[in-house]
Amino acid sequence: MKNKILILICVLIFFIGIIGSAFVLFSPKKNNVNIKRDGRVLYSFDLNNTADSELEIPYGDSSNTVEIKDGKIRVKDAECRDQTCVNMGWLSSGSMPIVCLPNHLVIEFADGYDDGVDAVAR
């Protein structure tokens, strides 16, 4: 009797794992993107509903060119020395935003909730 209960529990856990995996794999992809400067949202897009375009975002004497193409977004060109934001390529991860430190620009997926506080430092 104990073996039957143990097998039943294992089978139940297996099916719950398969259902959970299917839910994660087939859930809608995040496509809402914010372009921010110093924590303030400059632009907000739904990449699924935005036509291919380029934005010129000035900052002081320099600027960034942001490209939206085929439902993806990237910094195409930047007037800064290190070009790190250009080399990051297309935005693909919610945990890794595109950042241009010299121009104070951040491109990141929006999670639908923004209370304005990311962290507190003392």
Question: TL;DR of this structure?
Answer:
The protein is an alpha+beta fold and 122 residues long. It has two helices and seven strands; from the N terminus they run H-E-E-E-E-E-H-E-E.
Short key terms for the protein model shown above:
three-stranded antiparallel sheet; mini-chromosome maintenance (MCM) complex, domain 2; four-stranded antiparallel sheet; elongated; single chain; 7 strands; alpha+beta
Structure characterization notes:
- With 122 residues, the protein is of the alpha+beta class.
- The protein has a domain at 32-109: mini-chromosome maintenance (MCM) complex, domain 2.
- It is built from two helices and seven strands, in the order αβββββαββ.
- The chain has helices at 2-25, 84-87, and strands spanning 32-37, 40-46, 53-59, 62-69, 72-78, 98-100, 105-109.
- A four-stranded antiparallel β-sheet has the order 2-1-7-6, with no helix packed on it. The chain has a three-stranded antiparallel β-sheet with strand order 3-4-5.
- The protein is elongated, with a radius of gyration of 21 Å.
- The termini are far apart.
